[in-house]
Write a sequence for this structure.
């Protein structure tokens, strides 16, 4: 194994461990709130839960093949394995785009002032969440059926030419019309949902800016420094959207470069894997920052441990 492969393997293993554990921990927090303390749950929590599940699936199905490849494992995936892994990964990545966009739009409508034209939609938001999830799943599963038809295991390890090539998989040659149709569908979906993210985030930034300007007129310094839970959640979601857009464009740039590069480089595939897993890895840490359920959950666990502590048995 070359030094570059060793460094790549270290990043991939650290990313899969940190990302999966953080998302799993956050998912357990939301499950705890739903089952043990339902009075604490909010409609937006279901979007957070869906996003954490999508993050775990994205990291697992993206990173595991890259880790096996970086350690020099040959023929890890056959045709069925390539189709399954990359279909699930692409569907999960599409769901990540859609869910983050839904999260941004949901919060923008939630904090919209009462005189806004969006205010009348606030009471309908909670009824739209699960139909939106169903719509996202159906759309992305239909879009990526194309992968099952085109992805095959790579038995020739010296592939040259345009196209997607992974350490274990590659796409077969397609007709120009078929390839452009698939690309147009993907681009249309991405442009639509990324545009919704950016516009709703800019709208929230404008609302926060106007709120801060009004806060400067308050004479009490303690009141001006105080931030409502809605504003804290809005800051978190704006950071999430910025993080997503940053890594989305970086990943797409490297992916397009690798796609059109005549000579294929396995390290470029590993770099795109790291970039595509950065957002789902960092996402739970943004969400944990202002989650008030975490201290309550940890305190309840400490209370549960107290009866079983040695001092309890010693009297």
């Amino acid at each position: 194994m070359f030094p570059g492969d060793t460094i790549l393997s270290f990043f991939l293993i650290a990313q899969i461990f940190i990302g999966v554990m953080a998302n799993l921990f956050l998912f357990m927090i939301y499950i705890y709130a739903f089952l043990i303390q339902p009075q604490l749950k909010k409609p937006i929590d279901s979007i957070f839960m869906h996003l954490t599940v999508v993050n775990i699936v994205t990291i697992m199905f993206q990173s595991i093949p890259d880790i096996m490849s970086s350690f020099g494992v040959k023929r890890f995936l056959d045709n069925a394995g390539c189709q399954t892994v990359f279909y699930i990964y692409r569907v999960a990545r599409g769901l990540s785009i859609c869910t983050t966009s839904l999260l941004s739009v949901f919060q923008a409508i939630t904090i919209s002032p009462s005189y806004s034209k969006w205010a009348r939609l606030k009471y309908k938001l909670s009824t739209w969440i699960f139909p939106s999830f169903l719509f996202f799943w159906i759309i992305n599963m239909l879009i990526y059926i194309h992968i099952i038809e085109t992805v095959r295991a790579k038995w020739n390890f010296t592939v040259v030419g345009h196209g997607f090539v992974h350490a274990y998989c590659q796409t077969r040659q397609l007709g120009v019309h078929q390839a452009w149709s698939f690309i147009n569908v993907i681009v249309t979906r991405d442009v639509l949902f990324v545009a919704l993210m950016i516009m709703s985030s800019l709208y929230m930034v404008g609302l926060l800016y106007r709120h801060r300007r009004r806060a400067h007129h308050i004479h009490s310094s303690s009141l001006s420094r105080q931030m409502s839970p809605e504003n804290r959640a809005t800051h978190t979601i704006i950071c999430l959207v910025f993080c997503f857009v940053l890594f989305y464009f970086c990943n797409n740039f490297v992916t397009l470069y690798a796609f059109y590069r005549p000579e294929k480089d396995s390290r470029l595939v590993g770099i795109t894997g790291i970039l595509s897993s950065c957002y789902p890895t960092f996402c739970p840490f943004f969400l944990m920052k202002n989650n008030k359920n975490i201290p309550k959950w940890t305190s309840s666990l400490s209370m549960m441990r107290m009866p079983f502590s040695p001092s309890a048995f010693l009297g």
Observations:
- The radius of gyration is 23 Å.
- The first helix runs from residue 3 to 35.
- The first strand starts at residue 151 and ends at 153.
- Residues 26 and 230 are 19 Å apart (CA to CA).
